[in-house]
Structures are given as C-alpha cells and as structure tokens.
Amino acid sequence: AAAAGPGAAAGLWSEVNRCGQNGDFARALKSINKILQISKDDVTALHCKVVCLIQNGNFKEALGIINTHTKVLTSDIIAFEKAYCEYRLNRIESALKTIQSASQQTDKLKELYGQVLYRLERYDDCLAAYRDLIRNSQDEYEEERKTNLSAVVAAQSTWEKVVPEDLGLREATYELCYNSACALIGQGKLNEAMKKLQKAEELCRQSLSEDSDVTEEDIEAELAIIHGQMAYIMQLQGRTEDALQLYNQIIKLKPTDVGLLAVIANNIITINKDQNVFDSKKKVKLTNAEGVEHKLSKKQLQAIEFNKALLAMYTNQADQCRKLSASLQSQSPEHLLPVLIQAAQLCREKQHAKAVGLLQDFADQHPANAAEIKLTMAQLKIAQGSVTKACMILRSIEELQHKPGMVSALVTMYSHEEDIDSAIEVFTQAIQWYQQFQARTNYGCCVFQPKSPVHLSLIREAANFKLKHGRKKEAISDLEELWKQNPKDVHTLAQLISAYSLVDPEKAKVLSKHLPSSDTLSLKVDVDALENSHGATYVRKKAGKLTGDNQQKEQGQGEVKKKKKKKKGKLPKNYDPKVTPDPERWLPMRERSYYRGRKKGKKKEQVGKGTQGSTTAGSSELDASRTASSPPTSPRPGSAAAVSATSNVIPPRHQKPAGAAATKKKQQQKKKKGAKGGW
Prior knowledge:
α22 packs antiparallel against α23. This protein is mainly alpha-helical. Among the domains are: 1-104, Tetratricopeptide repeat domain (Serine Threonine Protein Phosphatase 5, Tetratricopeptide repeat), CATH 1.25.40; 419-515, Serine Threonine Protein Phosphatase 5, Tetratricopeptide repeat (Alpha Horseshoe). It has helices at residues 5-22, 25-38, 43-55, 59-68, 75-88, 92-101, 107-119, 123-136, 142-159, 174-187, 190-209, 216-236, 240-252, 258-272, 277-284, 298-314, 318-331, 336-348, 352-365, 370-383, 387-395, 404-416, 420-441, 453-468, 472-485, 490-503, 505-512, 518-521, 527-531, 548-556, 602-606, 660-674.
C-alpha cells in the first residue's frame, strides 16, 4: 500500500487540477480528501481543501480547518483565505485583525482590506486604500475598483455630509451613474440626482439586453435598486403618492436583496405615519428579515428602530414603545429621538409632568443637546396652558436668546399674557447682545460702525412695540438710534417727534425743523381721477346745472331740514269706522276683563246617558254664556255690525270677514257638484 501511495496521489492531483479548471469544486474536494487520507498534514492539500470549501460557500467549515491546522497553515500561507472567511461570516473586526497581522500585504489582501473598511464605515481610510489600489495596479478589475471608489464617495456624502470631490471618473456604467446619483442626494441636489438615475436605468437596460440569456424579469430585478432610489427622491420632494406606487411595484417583484426590501418597507412606514397602521404592521416584518443587519449601515438600522418605536406608540403598544426606546437610548445615550419618543408616549398617557421631568433630566445630563430638548419642554408647557413657564424655559436657552425668531416668539407670548414689561425686557436683552457682539468684533476701532440689519430690525421692532403699547418715553432712545443710523428716514423722525411731544415739547419743535418742506412731499396725483377710479371707497358725484331759483334755495335754505311725511297706519280688513274700537285691544287676551278661559271638556258635557243623539233637558238653561251678565260673543259671519255703541261692542280685531261664510258655502257646493253619485 505504501508503494502504491505516490502513484495514486499523482493521479488524484491530476483529477484535482482538471476539476479546478472546469470549476467542479465539489468533485475536486472528494479527490483532496483522498489525498489527505494518504498524507493528513499535506500543506498543499489542506490549502486546496480550504479553497474548494470557500468556492462552495462553506465558509464556516473552511475557517474550522484553518483554525485546527494552525501549525501547518501559517498566516503567511492562508492569511487571505482566513480573512475572507471571517468577512463572509460577518466577523468584520476579526477579518481586519487578520489582514493587519499578515506579514506581506498582497493585492488580494488590499482589495479585501478596502471592503472591510467600507463595512466598518471607516470611509476616509477606505478611500485612501482604493486610491492606492487604482494607482498601483493594472488589470481587468480596474472598472470594479473605480465603482467601489465612487461608492465610498457616495457614502461619505450621504452619512457624513462631506462634500464629495471630483474624482474624474467617467460614468460609462450604470453602477457609476447610480453611485454619482447617491452622492448628489447627499448634497440635496435632488433634480440632478433624478437625471443621473434615469441615465443609470438606460445604461442598465442596454448592458443587460445585450445578453440573450437575460429575461425581462432579470432586468427589472436589477433595476429595483435604481427605482427604489427614484422613489426616495420623490418622497423627499413631497410626491408621496408617486413614491408609494413605485415602492409597492418593487415589493411585488419580490427582490432577493433583504436590505433593499427593508429600506423600502421603512420608507413606506414613514409615509403612512399614524395612518394605515395595519399596512405598516405588515411592512415592518420585512425589516426583521434575517441578514438585514449586515446589509445596511448603522444609521439606516437606527432609523428603522426609531420607526418601530413610533409605530408601537401609534398602535397603542405602550410597553413595546418603552422597551424599544429604552434600548435605543442605551445604544446611543446622547441621541435625542429615544427620549423624545418616551416623552411623547407619556403625553399620550396624559402624564405631562412626568414627560417634562424626563426631558429636564436629559437636558441636565447632556448640555450640548439641551436647546432642542428645552424647545420641546416649552411646547408641552404651552399645550398645558402655562405660557409664562414656557417663556421662562425659552429664555433659559442662551444660544437662542438673541435670535429674531426666538425674540418674536417670546414677545408674542408675553403680549398674549399682557406682560408688556417682560416683552420689552426681551427686546432690551437681544439689542444688548448685538451691541456687545459688535463691540467684540470692532475692538480697537474708533470710527463709526453701522449696525447689522438684524440689529437695526430688532431696534425698530422694539420701538414700534413700545409706541403701540403707549410707552413713548421708552421708545425715544430706540428711535434716536434708528435716526442716527439713517438721518433721511422721515418715518422714524416723525415717530421721534411724536414721542418727544409728550416728554419735551421744545425738543419736538427743534426736531420738526428737520422735516422736509411740503413742496418736497407733494405728490403729482390726479385727485379727481383717483376718486373716480374703480374700487375707490368714495366717488364724488358730478353736480348738475342749477337754475337761479334752485341756487337761491340751496344758498338760503341750506340749513333747513326737509320734513318727512308720516305714513298712514294700516287698518284691519274687517275695520268698521262706525264701531268704537275695543279699549282693551292692546292687552293680551288673558288680561282682558271679559276673558273667561278656554272651555275644557265641552264635548264630554254634551254626551248624555240616554239614547244616542239625545240631549239633556234644561242644558240651555244651565249655559252661563247665555245669561245677560256675560259679555256677548263675536257675531256670526255675515251678520250685521253691532246693535248699539255701548260697552258690549265687539272689537274689530275679533270680527271675521263678512264674506267668509259665503265662500265656505260656495266651496261646499262645488264639492257636491263634483261628487259622483247622489245622496
């Protein structure tokens, strides 16, 4: 057997060589295992076995063989294969150590070193590594290196907000166009980026359509990442409907890139916000796919986790929201969003005081981020109706006290609370800050220095505010400062004279001499044309020609007022001038002397105990309305007027028209004529 060993090994090596050239690494691995049975510590056989396992995707097994044969497979021999296995197993830090510990830095190790630095997001070192590779190597992989270099520049622009330098790369491939578009998105040049993506799409279709084996589905799958970036630009531009439609089209293609699916799902969740939460719950599952954490950058993963916490808050999952936000805060203690999400959740639970306390603790622990936190605290105080406390919180933000926006907000809030003194104090502090700033910048300069536009604007607003609230004495210094900066400002001079008129009339007279004469202020305006113009509130009527008599009347009786004719009052329809009106007609019916009230149960009194239709004997005698003492009722329709003009006269307001009964009879006759049949 020992004699047959060398010959058998030679045949096996020939088999390994042939399989390697054909790319049949599984069959080559079988031959290598037979060689290792003959010589288990054969360095070449072990090295070839590691390569075959890597080609077959068995990175974990290959790394195991390397670690178990460290004495034979030294770092000089197997450094690249070991680092590559660690890289593919997402052990990036270990791969970096393996590369750095190698005694000789080959081109393969330098290529892998650039990839490792990119995954670690060390973009500056990565950029230097690829530049060195492009400068010192000449082979068929130059285009791939340029593509990787442009990807590094795009990452710097997107995640580190670094203005990319022009590398002079010729954008001949769709990968280079795509990376250039990503760099433009990082700079905020969205329209230019969209044009680059459209160009990348065209180049991609052209290059893939040349291959007859590539189907339309394969082309659409390759274009998915380009379309996803187009949808992102649409979303940034506010075209959310178009972006959402394109996102859903990509999801329907079911691309194999879990990173792309996770990003698209996250962007759809941000569009939905607190609406369509059921769709967001479905999409959030795509962000939890296996391997997503190795495909995306740290900031992308962090954004997805933030949106998960917000979605939990919108879906009333308070415990889940607190858990996610607490985890995010432990990972990034100085980040604002986790504590803001926690405060928002507390506000949804009506625990505003606890939310303000949480924000205050964070502001004390992280002074660098205190400004944003205090703005949120002030907003919560305003929502609770504590405007004064909100003003105190805003005034505690020293770096924003002098900003025009902050001054305007504080003055508005103090005015709402009718605290004019505090509003004036805000103006004073802001103006003093700009005066001190100007003194620091103009140190040692004795000549007159004009004030900045912001400073002058604050002074003018302060003066106008004081004048509006009757503080003319306090406005004088501000107005004098403004007039000093611009002596030709007539409006400011007029305000200054008005203010001095209450304090020092003599000073007001002196200043009034600086006002321009009326000749210089006269405007060449056609008053008649202006009054008769369309839209004028007053239009002067053209006076007609007056006769001599009319002219004398206008001159002599201009002050005499014309007497207005009184209109005759309307009389009732049944008014009879022969009848004296009822003196109590202006009183309500209940207050009149002859009012007896409504008759209740009249029909019941008429019903007797005898046969149907019979009446009780003597019922007319018991009727009090027929006695002489009671006032007479209204006359029957069509009857004559009253018999005598005594106190028993029927009031005209209670008389019915004379023709009422006749019209009623005519209507009844018409109905009888029109009826069919007879009696």
